[in-house]
Design brief:
single chain; 118 residues; alpha+beta; five-stranded antiparallel β-sheet; elongated; disordered N terminus
């Protein structure tokens, strides 16, 4: 069986919204892992290795969905989308009920703009 890439995944707003049911629990686990990792002694290589393996699994799960974990400490996730012929990000932050913001890919979270639903 061969695998192939279909290129980057782009989300329509409703697709990204539905993906939150999968993304939210993974991001919650990532945030807990990040908090736990902050408490590990630098010489505890076994625990560090275990946490790195878990983090890689979470990252892989999110990549398979097509979204990008931007900040594991705060649970910020981008969903690439096309807008006026360019790639931008639908931006979601853990705890938000739905996706209400977007930003240019290079700008990030601080430059989020409210989605105009007109």
């Amino acid at each position: 069986m061969s695998t192939f890439s279909t290129g980057p995944k782009y989300f329509h707003y409703l697709q990204a919204q539905k993906a939150l049911t999968l993304v939210s629990p993974i991001v919650n686990d990532c945030m807990k892992l990040y908090q736990a990792a902050q408490k590990v002694h630098p010489n505890d290589l076994e625990t560090i290795g275990y946490y790195q393996e878990l983090a890689a699994r979470y990252h892989n799960e999110l990549s398979l969905i097509g979204c990008i974990l931007k900040n594991p400490a705060t649970g910020t996730v981008d969903f690439p989308t096309l807008y006026q012929g360019r790639t931008v990000a639908l931006s979601w932050h853990f705890g938000e009920k739905k996706i209400n913001y977007w930003h240019e890919m290079q700008d990030g979270f601080v430059a989020r703009k409210k989605i105009d639903r007109k």
